[in-house]
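Before a colleague's protein record goes any further, I have to sign it off. I want your independent view on whether this chain really folds as the tokens say. The record follows directly below this note.
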Amino acid sequence: TQSTWGWSMVLQIAAYPNEEVETKVLGGYIRLNKGITLTHFMGKMILCFLGAYAQAAIETLFILLLTDKNGYKIPESTIGTTSGNLILVDLIFRIPSSAIAGHLYDIFGRKVMLAVGLGITVIGTIMLPFMPNIFPMLALARIIFGSGCTIVGLAPLIADYIHDSDKGKAIGIGTVAGSLGGVAAVGTINLFLLSSKTIADIHVYAAVIVVVIGVVGVALVKGGLYFKNSEGHGKKEADGGILAGIMLARHPWILMGYIISFIAVGETFLSASTIIMWTKKHYVVEVEGSLQATHIMAVVFGMVFITGGITGYITDHMSLFTNVGLTCLLSFLGMSTIIFVNNPEHPITYLGLVLWGTSLAGLGALSTYLVDRFTPEEHRGKAHAIQGIASVVGIIFCSHLGGFLFDHWTIHAPFILFLAALAITLVFLLIIWLTRSTWLAKYESEGSFLLNIHSNSSIDKSKLLS
């Protein structure tokens, strides 16, 4: 997630190929851009694992912290609203953080900003379970945690590292690494719960894990500015500010990437947070509900792991229209099944979880694929900033509006909201398909790439039409 660590951070790809590629890794399976080594690539994969681990672990622990009967003693009838309000405060601060951090990545480089973001994230993680009250102290800790996640999540490292021709394969590997992190988070939390550790203790353990893995990952990634040469001069001017990221939405596939980022990160939050409240509503014994929730999350993240590599291959070989359409339909069917059955232990519910987990891998990959595939390299940071803002809005949509309706309408409300969003996305996809020739003619007549600042860039016309 641009605004959180998750699938939208995990899966990022090169917008333009570097013609001087020599390095190949993984037995020639992945080609890297000039100046990138296996060490840099492994550093990013470690951060992929860590990003999903932090997303799944901390968001899960946050809900467990709020629902702990020995903690803040929040009435069960208002737990959804309280959770939504806290996350809303956090996300309000993530919007300017995304705009600022995305631009700073293009100024100061990746390694420096990653280190800053990692440090802030760890501080917020440790603070969360020790705050004396919900407002303002727990909200403050949540803001600090969220700001750190935002900074880390915006780093377009795979966009910098991977040759254009192998972007789908890199997506698959990143998905596998991220899903392993998600499964590891669920496993460690489950283990700690079974060993009767307190929620505060588990937060501290999670922070230590984030520090250890994060330091290794940041140390291995490449420093410097990816679009500058050895003399430090920019190959292209990264002008336009954050407005450039907004103007990029004139491209239909970049706009679709922003929309899918809204859905992908919102649904990731749904699978790592809201699903816990939904599951626990079906149990009288709190521990039983918590354990079943971790089992459900394990199924979702497990499917992301299993289908991650396939997703990357499909992204390279299937048309964008077909890929986006099928992925959204899988998500729609998965969540509809969960609503219809309304039983966290029913076999058909697990079938819905399998479909949903498969779609999450595809949505996360597609959101960043679409943005990075058609974004000029000197504007990647700013495009990721707008994508991050879209992600933030997706989480607000799920946590605040969904949380309020969870308490006052039905426990299925967050799922229903995203079913509506998916339906709208499919309608927009149909519009793109019907008007694809018009879009292409528009860009050909402009003779430049969107902002009239990248006149030598060629548009991948075949990819636009497919």
User: Anything to note?
Assistant: The longest strand covers residues 24-25.
